[in-house]
Amino acid sequence: MLDDRSEDLIQRHLEHLATAADLAELDRLVSERSEVADALWEAVRVDTLLTLHLQGIVSAETPAAGLKPYGVQWRRLVWAIAATAAVLLVAPILWWSLQGPTGKVARDAVPSVRHGVPGYGVTGHPVVSGAVEVEGTRATRVLDDAPLRVVGDRPAVIELAGGTRAELAVSTAAVIRPPDNRSRQVLELLEGGGRFRVPRQADRPFRIETCSGSVTTLGTDFEVNLWSTEGKGDQDMSFRSMFVLAVAVVTGMVHVEVPGQTLVLSAGSQKVFGAEPEKQKDPGKWLPSGDMLGFTGKGGEPFALERSVPGVAGALELTSEQKQKIGAAAAETIQSEKVRAAVVLAKLNPNATQLQKEEAQKLVAEARGKLRQLVGTILTDEQKKLVADINTAAEQARREVSESAQAEQAPDKHDEPATKRWRKEVHQRMDALMQKRIVAMLNPAQQAAFEQAAAAQAAAEKAPKGQLKEQDKTKQLDAVKQTDAVKRPDKDKQPDKAKQPDKAKQPDKAKQPDKAKQPDKVKQPDKAKQPDKVKQADKLP
Amino acid sequence: MTEQEDFLRQFLRCEADLRALVGAVVRDVHVREDVYQEIALTLWQHFDRYDPSRPFGAWARGVAAKKLLERFSGDRRLPLVLSPDAILKLVEAADRSESQPAPGFEALEHCLGKLPEKSRRLLTLRYSQAQPLAAIAAEFRATQTAVYQALSRLRRRLRDCMQQYLAAHGGV
User: Fold this and answer.
1) Please, which pLDDT band fits residue A382 given cuts at 50, 70 and 90?
2) For A136-142, what is the mean pLDDT?
């Protein structure tokens, strides 16, 4: 039996009421007397169980933490037998009377049990809210293995096996796979994503499979998004993969497996996979882009000048060592994981907030500033002077063509094709004059290097782009198209934005952790205000 | 079963113990959560060093204690509530308790079910809604000391009840 003083110190500690002197005394008692250590351990354990249980994080139905779920298994078994019997009796009637060709069945169908996991393999997963189409037809339930797509203007909530709720964003394409002897459910995500609330079940992981990797959990609240990078690359970001996988964990932890990498993500963390920069296999042949070297465009902004003047970076005659150092500087700054992740989220996430976009811009600007500093230490004075001269010549050429264009009779602005043609012509004139002026200032060796780089650039541009990527992507795109087979037969003719969720209509909170469900910080009671007398203790339990 | 599934299964079984250990020595609730997540990651990163012939819980608590001491040694802003010596004694106490089945959530649910409604309400305010003592006292029209004493009694009562349940039903 523990003495009252030790017990009181432990209880004070649990309620955050212990003073420094109390804690020092408790510390001494725990160090010196094993029974006090035992009592403290028991008390903090009960306190933790109460917290986990009453905050709904863990219950006896979702076994964890030292729980031997004999009773739970028994209850599940009874339930499973009852559910199976009900399915056997009811399913044939439901099947023939209610199931349409698309897997649509009535809402009150009974869940089935497969591999011991309560699921909806026979009756279909109920669409709790939002709109889902299977093979182009609206469905209130989705059968296993049926390709689905979320339509409408709001996310769809679908109930999966074992109580998992998937809130899928608009335009998400996915296939729900049945439970197997390893997983309670697998969701094959083809495009899009959403938030997944997975009740804890220690022996049955829930898995999301994508072409870029898989995410496995035994119970947590997390977001997974698979965004297409098609047509999204620009000067700030080029993509090696055709899809980027973004995982954000709200509570608990998940395992992520992507090619060549396996890692654990815990609550509050998010990570983007597939946004790595293009690998430069031959640093000797690689040429940094103009914006890395200090070339500028209109308004003095960093600009990949080789887009207007192919081969311009070659004129600097960079040594292999310089190229390697510039590559390393870029990797450390504008191509760093942090910057790329922020840019990916801002560019690819259709629900990105203005704040996220501004933060990404700020990060890029800071990274560019740092890169400029580093490149300044790598280039020789002659090279830096050449960059400055080229910038001046390019700016001069731009201004001259622009002024002459203003003096010309521009086509009627309402005549869009003519305006477009005219603008293109002005740009071509600008590029040609820039090239002429730049070449004129180069010495013979620089001119030769310039021409060599221009030829290499032209060859690279002519080469079939992303042949390998397309092969990798074929299966994935086929699967996505399958989900559109009926609904969108002319998908290829549709504008890109058709497959993006309507940003304006997406609730922001879908992306944010549900703060309401986060435990509030336990406030310290104001000890000074605590009366010592126990006047009304009889009112309390 | 993959290595990850194996890890997750074992990790979740000792989740409450790890949270209890962190809760016993770190005062700030938010820092607790951060530390807990760090420990989870460390365990996963070092899972290949775990000897399956030994109890996972003991290994995990050992790693957690080391992590706690590493992280907080010399950090005056976030001092640990207990000294390194006391933390090790606490880990030893946890190891001793593991030799016998420990009460879990089913025992807790059973014992909570036996409490009167007023007691359950008090625990809900304290644990589910994380209300400060002052707010709970206001709701019950009692003093904070009375609330503190009621909570202390309830925790002891629950602990005893769970032990009895455990003795009667085995380790649940």
Assistant:
1) very high
2) 81
* Number of residues in chain A: 541
Report the number of distinct structural domains present in chain B. Answer: 2
**B53 or A112: which carries more pLDDT confidence?**
B53
- For residue A306, list its beta bridge partners: none
Query: What is the domain-level CATH number for residue A170?
Result: 2.60.120.1440
Question: What integer is the mean pLDDT of B51-73?
Answer: 87
B8 and B54 together in one domain: yes
Residue type, B36: Y
CB contact under 8 A, A541 and B134: no
User: Is residue A53 less than 8 Å (CB to CB) from chain B?
Assistant: yes
The interface predicted TM-score of the complex, written ipTM, equals 0.93
Same structural domain for residues B57 and B86?
yes
Rounded to 5°, angle at Cα A540 from B167 and B29: 75
> Do residues B1 and A182 touch, judged by C-beta distance below 8 A?
yes
Give the range of the structural domain holding residue B132, as residue numbers without chain letter.
105-169
**Is residue A114 in a domain?**
yes
Find, among B150, B81, B34, B19, the residue nearest to A50 by Cα: B19
Chain A nearest CA to B114, separation (Å): 13
Residue A497 lies in a domain: no
Same domain for A11 and A129 = no
In this structure, the answer to whether residues B12 and B84 fall within a common structural domain is yes
Share of chain A above pLDDT 90, in %: 15
Residue by residue, DSSP assigns A473-490 as: HHHHHHHHHHHHTTT-TT
Whether residue A232 contacts residue A225, with contact meaning beta carbons closer than 8 Å, is answered with no
Closest chain B residue to the Cα of A31, Cα to Cα: B86
Over residues B86-112, the pLDDT tens digits come to: 999 999 999 888 777 777 788 888 899
Same domain (yes/no): B141, B123: yes
Instruction: Tell me the mean pLDDT in the region A419-446.
Output: 88
Q: In chain A, what percentage of residues exceed pLDDT 70? A: 67
Tell me: the pLDDT tens digits for A324-371?
Answer: 888 888 888 888 877 877 777 777 777 777 887 888 888 888 888 889
Shared domain check, B89 and B10: yes
Inter-chain touch A534–B149, beta carbons under 8 Å: yes
Q: What is the pLDDT of residue A283?
A: 59
CATH number where B71 lies: 1.10.1740
Instruction: Determine, yes or no, domain membership for A476.
Output: no
Those residues with Cβ within 8 angstroms of residue B19's Cβ, 6 or more apart along the chain or in another chain: A48, A51, A52, B32, B36
Cβ neighbours, 10 Å, residue B115? 17
> What residues have CB less than 8 Å from A447, skipping those under 6 apart?
A315, A439
Chosen domain end from B98, B124, B152:
B98
Under an 8 A CB cutoff, do B105 and A53 touch? Answer: yes
Is A196 in contact with A164 (CB distance < 8 Å)? yes
